[in-house]
Amino acid sequence: MTTTTAATTSSRTLQALALSDPLTLGMWAQPRAVVSRPHLSLIASAFKQAAIAPGGRLLITTPPQVGKSLTAATYGPAWYLLRHPGRRIAIGTYADALAHRRGRDVRDVIAEHGHRWGVGIRRGSASVADWETTAGGGLRSVGVGSALTGFPADFLLVDDPHKDRAAADSRRQREAVWDWWSAVATSRLSPGAPAVLIMTRWHDDDLAGRLLAREGRAEDGGRWHVIHLEAIHTGKHGPDPLGRAVGDPLPHPKVAEGGTAALLSHWEDKRRGSTARDWAGLYQGDPQPAEGALVTAALLAERRVPYGQALPAPERVAVAVDPSGGGRDEAGIIGGYLGADRLVYLTHDWSGVMGSDRWARTACLLAVETDADRIVVEKNFGGDMCRQMINTAWQALHQEGRVPAGRSAPFVAEETAKRGKALRAEPVAQALVEGRVWLADDLPELAREWATWQPTSSESPGRLDASVYLVKNLAPHVPPYVPSQHQGRKLADISLKRDVPNTPRLPDLGRRWWH
C-alpha cells in the first residue's frame, strides 16, 4: 500500500467516524481548536442521546469557558444537520448578534465540510441568521425576544438566554425570557422535537431553575436530563457525572489531561476573584445560596402554616399596596392580619402587572374579600393621588354592587419610604426569623422575592415592599434588627431551631378566618 493510499484510507476512516457525535466532528474539522476532555465527551454523548430521543430535553450547566458552547452550540447543530439535512434547527441566545454568530459558525462548518456527506448550503441562502441546506433543511438563529414566525423547528437549542447578572436579577427580564421560551421558542417545535438548553446559572429562578421546578429532572420522573458539572465537585448534588471524588476539579480544554494541580490552581483563582454568590452560581451551578438575602427559602418554608392547621381569629385586617410606577410595571398587593395570638399572618397575594386604574380596584376588592379595615399604600410615586385613586375605586365598586351594602370604606393609611429598602425590610425579616410573621397560605411569588432579593440590588420587588408595609402597619412595635443579638450573623444564616428555641406554636382557634 502506497503512502498516498494509506493517507486516503485514514482520511476516509476519520470521515466515517466524524459523525459519531458532535465532539468527534469538531476534533475532525478543527483538530487544533477542539480537544477531547472527559466533560466534553459527556456533553457530546448527552447531546446525541437527546437528539434521537422523541421529545428529548437536555440541560447542560457548567462554569464559563470550558468548551460547552463550542461542543454543543456549534458542532452540535452542525452534526445534527449533517445527519439530518432535511430538518430545521432554531437557535436562540440572549442577543441577536450572538445568535447570528452561532448561526454563522454552524453554516461555515456545513459549507466547508458538508460536501463530504452530500450536504451543502442552498444558493442564495447567504444570511447568517436564516439559511437552508440543499436538502431543504436549515437553521434560523434569533435573540431571546425575537420571533420565529413561519419557521417550524425540528430541534431547538438555547445557549445562554440570560446576558449577565443584572439581567438574571431583573424579574422583568427573567419573565421576558420565560415568555419567549413559552410563547415563541417551544411553540415552533414539531411533534417529538428535542430541545437543548445550555447555560451558566445566574439565579435560582433563571430559565433553567424555572424549567426544573415546573417539569422536573429525569432521575426524579421528570422531563429534563441534566448535565451539572461543578468547578470543584462537592457531593452536594449527588454523584458526579464524571465520577469525580469530592474536591476534584473540572477538566479544562486548555489544561493538559492529568494536570490536577494546574486545574485546582485555575479554579481556586476563579474562586478568589468571585463573590460567594457568583462562585456558587456561575462556577458551582448552585445559585440558591444568594449571599446577602435577608431570609432563606428554607426558613420561609418553615414559616408556612401547615395545611389543615386552624388559624387564630383576626384582631386587625389590612391590605398593603406598593403601586406600580417609578419605572416598574408590577404592583405589589398583599393582604394579611394581626391575630389574637399577636402574630402577623400574610394571607393573600394579588400582585401583578397593572396600571393605576387596576391596582386601586384590585386593592379594594381584596379589602372586600378579607373584610380589611384599612388599606396601606406607599405614596412615593403617586403622592396624594394614591388616596384619591383608592377612594374613587371604592365608590365605583360600590355603585357596581361589588361592595356589600352598609360596608364602610376602609381607612387609607399612607406610607412614605424615607429609608433604604434594606433598612425597612430588616425588621420584618427579623420577625420572620423569630416566628412573629407567618405565611398563612401558599404564596410562592412573595416567598421567592424574599428569598432572592439582595439588599444591594437596584431591583424594587413590589410584593416584598407591600408585605413590609403591611407588617409595619399591623405590628408597629416590631423591634429593629440588632446584629449583635446573633453575633453579627446575617439573618439568612440563622437557623430557627438552633437560635430561636422559644418560637410560639400556632394555636388551634377554629377554621381559617376567611372561609
Automatic annotation (TrEMBL):
Entry protein name: Terminase family protein
Pfam families, per database record: Terminase_6N
Lineage: superkingdom: Bacteria
UniProt organism field: Streptomyces boetiae
